[in-house]
């Protein structure tokens, strides 16, 4: 740990940061996790510029910002992380300029590193089936947690929802008649996502057997509960997904977001319209959906051999 990490952000910087976070949460409707990331990014910058003698926002110029950006590279952070942090900083200074905290925006000339868009890793359809079969096998012991885990895995794969969206579900978000769930996504945007008959059966079993066994007076309306009866934590879900995946031979350990990638890809491979997939995933940009929905090499080869005159 270096000296800047041991220091504390000055009162002036802390005040500006707090006002910005309030704006992010109340005006933009960002989630607690997003605002926490903004705060962490700002603290990282402020500690750096303090070590260079800056005490007020107006002391920070493009030279300091570029120095901070260079320090991120030296620290070995990935291009994606650096780009995200730089975006946070540019957003903060644009806000600070708009609210007259500073007269000029020093971050307007800050170049955000380009991030190469990598194709997401996915499970093949047979691997996804093997994962669900393994979850069903675990649930055969009628353990409340194993039955719950099977329901969560089936719902993650059936809907492509994010793990944060899964743990945020309440019982009333389920519509068993229409087989849909109401999801509160990024930016507090609400959407309705369908799920299939298999996921329906596992969720029904969970509600009939597991949830009553796990529930306590503090459970509230939360759909999925942890071992202590409270709303299940994202970390518990991630650990469970890794645990079940690692029990299968030859299957990549992708975590919950890998199931989201896989669900999107398998929908496209099954003939789903890309805009329908965009709506299911809750993407504001179609370009983001296109990144998720790459096709398998086997399918690409099959399409080529069927369509190309020289195949």
From TrEMBL:
Domain Tyr recombinase per the UniProt entry, residue ranges: 118-305
Subcellular location: Cytoplasm
Coiled coil region boundaries: none
Gene Ontology MF term list: DNA binding
Keyword tags: Cell cycle, Cell division, Chromosome partition, Cytoplasm, DNA integration, DNA recombination, DNA-binding
InterPro entries for this protein: CB, DNA_brk_join_enz, Integrase-like_cat_sf, Integrase_catalytic, Integrase_recombinase_N, Integrase_SAM-like_N, Tyrosine_recombinase_XerC/XerD, Tyrosine_recombinase_XerCD
Keyword Calcium: no
UniProt GO BP: cell division; chromosome segregation; DNA integration; DNA recombination
PANTHER family: PHAGE INTEGRASE-RELATED, TYROSINE RECOMBINASE XERC
Protein name in the entry: Unannotated protein
Taxonomy of the source species: unclassified sequences, metagenomes, ecological metagenomes
